[in-house]
Amino acid sequence: MASNREREELHKAIWSIADDLRGSVDGWDFKQYILGIMFYRYISENIANYINEGERKAGDTTFDYAKLKDSEAESERANLVKEKGFFIRPSELFCNVIKSAKSDSATFTDVEGKTKSVKDNLNEYLEMIFNNIENSAKGAESEDDFSGLFDDIDVNSNKLGSTVTKRNEKLIKILDGIAAINLGNYQDNNIDAFGDAYEFLMSMYASNAGKSGGEFYTPQEVSELLTRLAIVGKTSVNKVYDPACGSGSLLLKSAKILGKDNVRNGFFGQEINLTTYNLCRINMFLHDIDYDKFNIACEDTLVSPQHWDDEPFEVIVSNPPYSIKWAGDDNAVLINDPRYSPAGVLAPKSKADFAFIMHSLSWLATNGTASIVCFPGIFYRGGAEQKIRKYLIDNNFVDCIIQLPENLFFGTSIATCIMVLKKSKKDNSTLFIDASKQCIKVSNNNQLTEKNIADIVKIFEDREDVEYTAKLVSNKEIEENDYNLSVSTYVEQEDTREHIDIDVLNKEIDEIVEREQLLRDEIKKIISEIEVWLWLKLKKW
């Protein structure tokens, strides 16, 4: 598969950089430099390609923004900020910085007006460039989208080296390594490069991977399934929303499948982790989602949602962190929050899963669909979770529950589920799908194929019983089962054991017994003949 090949190329390149820096940069810190410099490279290429394409369409077929003088480019600064949301001087493009860093004669003017060598002051030069990029959006509509994008890259950190010279040596190695990554046209890639790089880096430094809970992203194949489930019957939607958007994988998949122009009012998301929040904004830019077509917020979705003025959403896709702790009933205000109050109870403090579900349901449009990855335990546990399930079923919001294969995600081997929610269903039933065998083995993980995805979506669309695979269950029956929503409760498991016909077995036993009796008779006959022979022999003697 193309995605596997691209993923392998990316992992090989990252490993090569890590190998060069082994023993000098801590793994967890190394992650920030890789992701940040990747973004710097791509944002440079993005604006250069944009300008080059425009000039070449206008007739200048040899135009190259990277070769332009900074003074010549400044005249278009205002237009570029308006169109792209940011501006980068030609001399500050990724490709030119690498050349300058290896030149003994390349210089730059620092913020105090002093002329300095790029090679000897690469760390300072990069810091200035990153500030220049962020500052280019100051006062523009895109300011919030660019603010803090480079905060995770500390080019002056002692972790890079105890001296400026050592830091710069490490920085040029990282720049060279990122430059060597060959992903072709970023927008056409079958993987989320930033999300996948993030996952791979976390797997490399697994001992530190627990610094922030839920820091694993949704594989592209699962993103594909979630999105296709949410857009069944739709060719265009008003808005797409992810309440725990991470690196933006699900939002981008919606843009790719529907076409970004068919999401009329843009893409919305919220993410609590600063690093992944920045990754999400970066990914939006790199996939040519204009700054005025997305709104990503950094806050706790459950207690401080940032998109009250933007809801409802026609498509909600999400893979929220499983069973994390949240304020719950420790916060007396939350029970009166319009997102949670309809159920009459809050999700347990130790398990926020249903808080995310109730939030998504509240912000779902009447004609919309929410597709959410869930931890299986929430479908059968009692207490508050059972009461919330009762609310969802009694009000006919649950459209489908899908059991996924185990070991699909980095960071957990459990077999996850998908809950599909709708506010305008055509029947008072819930479809249960057992897709636990819909996968192939790839290295240590399972993976959904295109056929697997197509098969699951087809079963979802048909909404009919399929032996050992799907069961359409009335909400009344679910009520009788104490609102248990486990797929295994309703979809009969195929008995793969060898089936035995008792009549045939009894006949075979009778035949065996008959053959045994014949054998005994033959043995008795032989023994009798031997006895007669021996008697005659003895008599003769």
Q: Explain this structure to me?
A:
- With 541 residues, this protein is an alpha/beta fold.
- The protein has 2 domains: 2-207, Up-down Bundle (Ferritin); 220-490, Rossmann fold (3-Layer(aba) Sandwich), CATH 3.40.50.
- It is built from 18 helices and 13 strands.
- It has helices spanning 2-20, 27-57, 70-73, 77-84, 94-101, 122-136, 143-146, 164-180, 193-204, 220-230, 249-258, 274-286, 353-362, 383-394, 450-462, 475-480, 487-490, 502-540; strands spanning 107-109, 115-117, 240-242, 267-270, 294-297, 313-318, 364-374, 398-403, 417-422, 429-434, 440-442, 445-447, 470-474.
- It has a 9-stranded mixed β-sheet.
- Helix 10 packs across helix 11 (249-258).
- 40% of the residues are buried.
Q: Helix and strand layout, with pairings?
A:
Elements: H1 2-20, H2 27-57, H3 70-73, H4 77-84, H5 94-101, E1 107-109, E2 115-117, H6 122-136, H7 143-146, H8 164-180, H9 193-204, H10 220-230, E3 240-242, H11 249-258, E4 267-270, H12 274-286, E5 294-297, E6 313-318, H13 353-362, E7 364-374, H14 383-394, E8 398-403, E9 417-422, E10 429-434, E11 440-442, E12 445-447, H15 450-462, E13 470-474, H16 475-480, H17 487-490, H18 502-540
Parallel strand pairs: 3-4, 3-6, 4-5, 6-7, 8-10
Antiparallel strand pairs: 1-2, 7-9, 8-9, 10-13, 11-12
Helix pairs in contact: 1-8, 1-9, 2-8, 2-9, 2-12, 5-8, 10-11, 10-15
